[in-house]
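Usage

Read records sequentially. Each one opens with the input sequence:
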Amino acid sequence: MYEDLLKPGTKYANLLKPIKIGKMTVKNRMKYAATVDNFANSDGSLGDKEISYLEERAKGGFGIVTSMGGFTDPLGKGYMGQMGLHKDEFIPGMKKLSDAIKKHGAKSVAQIMHTGRYAHPHEYGLGDAPVGPTAMAAKIPRYHPCRELSVAEIKQLIEDHGQAARRIKTAGFDGVEICGIVGYLIANFLCAWSNKRTDEYGGTLEKRARFYLDILRRVRKEVGPDYPVICRVNATDHMDGGNTEEEYIKVAKWLVDNGADALSITVGWHESNEPAITQEIKQGHWLYLATNMKNEIKNVPIVMAYRLNRPDVPDKAIADGIIDMWEMCRPGIADPELPKKVTEGRPEDIATCPACNLGCFMRIFFDSTMACMINPRVGREYEEAAKIKPAKKKKNIIVVGGGPAGMEAARVAAMRGHKVTLYEKSARLGGQLNLAGATPFCSDWNFMIAYYANQMNKLGVKVNLNTPATADLINKAKPDALILATGARQARPNIPGVDKKNVVMAFDVIEGKAKTGQEVLVWGGRAVGVQTAELLASQGKKVTIVEDAKRIGRDINAFNIWGFRHRMAKAGVKILLSSKVESIGDQGVVVNTEGKQQTLKADTVVIAMEMEADKGLLEELGSMAEVEEIHSVGDCVAPRKAYNAVHDGFRVAVQI
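and closes with the structure output:
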């Protein structure tokens, strides 16, 4: 049933081999990537939140743990909780971080990152604009127009990078990494699209690369010949007007010639036209770029991240000589013990990142602290309330509902020593995750279901499938605590014709319980409607979405929705916004768009409207419940996202 589970006992020998970066020996081939998490203090100094977060990744067995990128001067600060590298007074806090990483056998690397055009000086109290090689506006409204740097300012920035490297080495880090990717300052200089200069730092590729090479040479001079220096560089900008793959191979060669001990290669900018890290990109898709680099660069390790969420693909890529090291950000956010589980032959216990981008990218983009849908402890590692400790009193607990909220609650409660019984009315665990996993570009959700199903088995949770829980069943069982995770159900609006045979529910369509005709009207343009429409379009159906809001996908994360829009446009899905279905008749569906009526032909109408909380069991129990402790979690509280469901389940179970 859970075919996406990694096979227990599988050994990923290539990931476990030591590797040398310069003169530094790393114990394995797994590197936690520099991750903007907004856990630093507002002035850029480090506290318990950031240190505890990265220490947990070191405990989890990573060979290298990399700090978030640190800004070299306040104009380079792009995130509210970004680390600062511009003051000597920050060195003691940096040393606490490097010590915390190293004491668990990991190598500590700190990254230097000036965000350039993506900085927010106005928002952080500076009366200046973001800076770049050329004055220009940004494609994304979140970013402000930047001003052009003078040559004197460029020279100072080069010096600032050198001084940041000095502070990193002084703080005891084992190596330094220079960030030249995703549209930050160095990438702005490298790319002709954002660099229109005609002086020594613009024009030809060689001149555009001078800024990066000058920084690298200055860093190397500061840290000495034997100190490891890693350079991050794009393998493709993945956007119109960006550098070609061949140009980046040239840049990579120049970096190696000027002292880089390893290359960390990535894909795209924030302003790229196409997705790079979302679910529709298959595992390992970008490895061809590493192959191109490897064919030309033999003398330093090639490190790569992006859509390598599970150990099987990077292990084989290392065996095939495509990459030398697996770098990961989101997989390490989701499961800090991923390397430990690989080392111990327990890959089935890995909580695989489902690439939802909700807790990480979207929250960071809007200047909130990072979180994670599948790992509620992210950013709370130092909090006593977020630690999974043995229960003071072991209890018999019943969990009703096998969706994400119920499974997380059961997992955590069982880890704490409680005796847990779970009831699920359907034939399988997963709840609405099964529906998402059945749509064309959300199959990564299946990894999450497989993980939870395995944990239920390993932790001794008694799972009863095909068993609706009733008030009578619960009262007879007399549990010490009851966790209701009964989810939500689709609402059926009350309009003329809604009971016709050609009107079906979206969930039934996704599960294959309901068939549709060739022309389909999907009523509702939130996540369920969008994913249903995409599924139907992939089957060759002619699809129209009718949505009452001014845009579709209001509840889909901003980093994913544009991918859906692009694919639906390509598939010919018609979208009517600010529109309401008024009636369904024999001649068609009457739709009102801002006061104008039209009748649309549809063989089938698929209802994908808002959900309603399923409080049936809670109401059935009422005052007759013989359970003293009752908790409700997930969508039965209020219909929300899987993120909220998992966090609800964790919050309740960690306290019982």
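Summary fields computed downstream for this record:
- Residues 11 and 592 are 59 Å apart (CA to CA).
- The chain has a mean pLDDT of 95.
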